[in-house]
Specification:
The structure holds 2 protein chains of 2 kinds.
Chain A: H1 10-34, H2 39-54, E1 57-58, E2 67-68, H3 72-78, H4 81-99, H5 107-134, H6 140-169, H7 171-174, H8 178-210
Antiparallel strand pairs in A: 1-2
Chain B: H1 5-22, H2 32-39, E1 62-64, E2 67-69, H3 71-99
Antiparallel strand pairs in B: 1-2
Helix pairs in contact in B: 1-3
The chains are: A mainly alpha, B mainly alpha.
């Protein structure tokens, strides 16, 4: 999902970057109020874990394509969506500057999709699912598994939708308009996203067993 | 929130394993965006050359258990993981210090 340099018009890339700014400011403010000396190591190791996990590709996409974890829903569920925005912003910056994975001019667009949309949509889906299932007589663990699966799955699918919109609005350089880019990116990642949902659910379930204080249901 | 060093160590071990796997057996990447770009014959604009471009140092591979192992790719993956770990931890530490 990483857009390289040359895939977005200057206007779209600039607008995406400008949209990111208030989310960065809000995220830094929120995180500064909640992080302490005990949260910092956990945030660092989880961010490193997501970076490493993004290098693992699974071949379940349509037409022989592969996919990988984006990880923002997972960090958002375990820490907060604000932590997810900052973690993915760091990862995307390192990937662009050190590995040429994702462009510099498209950095704002990639942050908008994978950090902002992935984090907030993933987290909102997780919380909404828990709330809906809270009224049902279902095992607590099952609620966490279903909610985190949907958080990961819907999170990556909406991140792909955001990327599809940006590419479609950049049809003068990318070649395809919104009618092609939006369904192609969204449908392919809705399939690939099953992996994101499964990994998110497995990770959140595991953490809920060993560190239940990290997986709060309120 | 309590600090759990065992859990942190477990996360780092899993990260190292993933970096190894991601640089070796699961490194083949052909994403939907790559496919669209291929159909359109759309080329990336390389505005600068990153030091570990393509997640490799460009060394030769060795054959391990029937797989061509790109040793430099594994090292690049580990280096990247360490860079992210240091940056994220440093930033989180600065933010938490400002609070106190």
């Amino acid at each position: 999902m990483h857009m390289p340099d040359g895939f977005l018009t200057l206007q779209v890339a600039t607008i995406a970057f400008l949209i990111d700014i208030p989310f960065w400011i809000l995220s830094f403010k929120k995180v500064r109020n909640t992080f302490d000396a005990k949260t910092a190591p956990l945030f660092g190791t989880l961010t490193a874990l997501i970076f490493a996990a993004q290098m693992v590709n699974w071949p379940i996409g349509p037409g022989g394509t592969t996919g990988h974890l984006i990880g923002s829903p997972l960090i958002s569920i375990l820490l907060s969506p604000y932590s997810g925005v900052i973690a993915l912003s760091i990862i995307l910056l390192v990937q662009a500057l050190v590995f040429n994975d994702g462009g510099l001019t498209t950095y704002g667009g990639n942050v908008l999709s994978m950090a902002v949309v992935g984090s907030f949509v993933g987290y909102a889906t997780y919380k909404a699912t828990l709330k809906i299932m809270g009224k049902l007589k279902v095992n607590e663990k099952a609620k966490i598994i279903v909610a985190s699966f949907l958080g990961g799955w819907i999170g990556i699918t909406f991140a792909a939708l955001s990327t599809g919109i940006q590419l479609g609005l950049s049809s003068s350089v990318f070649g395809y308009g919104l009618s092609i880019t939006v369904p192609v990116m969204t449908i392919s990642h809705a399939i690939i996203g099953i992996g994101e949902g499964a990994i998110t659910a497995a990770a959140v379930y595991y953490v809920s067993k060993v560190r239940p204080d990290l997986v709060r249901e309120e | 929130m309590k600090l759990d060093y065992v859990m942190l160590l477990k996360i780092l071990v899993v990260a190292a394993i993933l970096a190894f796997l991601g640089s070796w057996v699961a490194s083949y990447a052909y994403e939907p965006l790559d496919k669209a770009a291929e159909i359109l014959n759309l080329k990336e604009v390389e505005i600068f050359k990153a030091p570990l471009s393509g997640y490799t140092l460009g060394w030769k591979t060795i054959n391990l258990l029937g797989y061509e192992l790109d040793v430099s790719g594994v090292i690049a993956g580990i280096i990247g993981t360490l860079i992210v770990l240091i940056l994220a931890y440093a930033l989180a530490s600065v933010l938490s210090r400002k609070k106190s």
